[in-house]
Design a protein that fits this description.
InterPro entries: MLTG-like. The chain is built from 13 helices and 7 strands. By secondary structure, it is mostly helical. It is elongated.
Length: 356
């Protein structure tokens, strides 16, 4: 009797060992199988709310892998507390199911980037958002006022309120989300710089410094000149002189600007014409980088009150009107074919993608 019991127990143990071995073999085979990804990478879109089990089943239905049951069982037994980040995962030729699960565990979703460029106005910023196909478009068709309300900045003018930088995001991020990040970043940088400002500046608040920074941004073709240009404008502002800066006139012209400004344009009143209006314009005229903000808040010492473009992006600075007029005659009335009165337009880098 005892012998029969021992034989029975031995059979049960042997059967259990065979079952465990079969289980381990099936699970190993499922994990080590190569995904059916051929010549090009496959982007796996994991949507918010998707579960590992559901994604395994979807991939099996699409013929990307086999034995989804064993993969679901593996996740349940070994990774039940692991969250599955939504986003896109890049599956490449030769990748195994185990490799894919490794991507999920590390959250290595594909990231895209959008570069917002110093000197852009809000219209150019909106176009950049609209032309990024990986962003979820929620702002198209809204007015500027409606957009500012959407991002939590109601009643604020949008010009200059966003920080130029390269922003990384995952597919499904909305244009409003990215704009909120750029808005918050500008607020942070402006506050940091404002707290460290020089003494005796003719600004009532940080917003006026931002307006000045936008003028400096548009006038500067040579980075080393930011402080000196800021010094000219700050001295003119402090003395009650007109700023007389072309970029503000151009901004005020809007769609009327066709590449050049005339004497008539300089005499035509707009809120942004600093040839006819004293003080700063009512809003910034472009997005600004930290360097322009810093220059506006730390203008270079000096006595110059005028500057004129040489035509290569740099400027000649003068203390007196007579000196300035001589520089104008030399550099503007004898223009070369490649003359530029302002910095060349800056282009955003090509949008790119990477994994996080």
């Amino acid at each position: 009797m005892i012998r029969k019991i021992l034989i029975l127990l031995l059979g049960v143990v042997l059967l259990a060992a065979i079952s465990l071995g079969l289980f381990a073999w099936k699970q190993h085979a499922a994990l080590e199988q190569s995904l059916a990804v051929t010549d090009e990478a496959l982007l796996l879109d994991v949507r918010p709310g998707d579960t590992p089990s559901g994604v395994f089943q979807r991939l099996e239905a699409e013929g990307v892998l086999d034995d989804a049951f064993w993969l679901r069982l593996y996740w349940r037994l070994n990774l039940s507390g692991q969250s599955l980040h939504s986003g896109e995962y890049r599956l490449t030729p030769g990748m195994t199911a185990r490799d894919m699960i490794g991507l999920w565990k590390r959250g290595e979703v594909v990231q895209y980037s959008l570069t917002l460029v110093e000197g852009w106005n809000f219209r150019q910023l909106r176009n950049a958002l609209l032309n990024q196909p990986k962003l979820q478009q929620t702002l198209d068709g809204l007015s500027d006022t409606e957009i500012m309300a959407r991002i939590g900045a109601a009643d604020l003018h949008p010009e200059g309120r966003f920080f130029p930088d390269t922003y990384r995001f995952t597919r499904g991020t909305s244009d409003a989300d990215l704009l909120r990040r750029a808005y918050a970043r500008l607020e942070q940088v402006l506050e940091e710089e404002w707290q460290q400002r020089a003494e005796g500046l003719p600004y009532q608040d940080a917003y006026q410094a931002l307006i000045m920074a936008s003028i400096i941004e548009k006038e500067t073709g040579v980075p080393e000149e930011r402080g000196e240009i800021a010094g000219v404008f700050v001295r003119r502002l402090a003395r009650g002189m007109l700023l007389q800066t072309d970029p503000t006139v151009i901004y005020g012209m809007g769609e009327r600007y066709k590449g050049r400004i005339t004497r008539t344009d300089l005499r035509t009143p707009t809120p942004y014409n600093t040839y006819t209006n004293a003080g700063l314009p009512p809003t910034p005229i472009a997005m600004v980088g930290r360097e322009a903000i810093h220059a506006a808040l730390h203008p270079a010492d000096g006595t110059s009150l005028y500057f004129v473009a040489r035509g290569d992006g740099s400027h000649v600075f003068s203390d007196t009107l007579d000196q300035h007029n001589r520089a104008v005659r030399e550099y503007q009335l004898k223009r070369r074919a490649d003359y530029r009165s302002s910095p060349p337009p800056r282009q955003a880098p090509v949008n790119s993608e990477s994994t996080q």
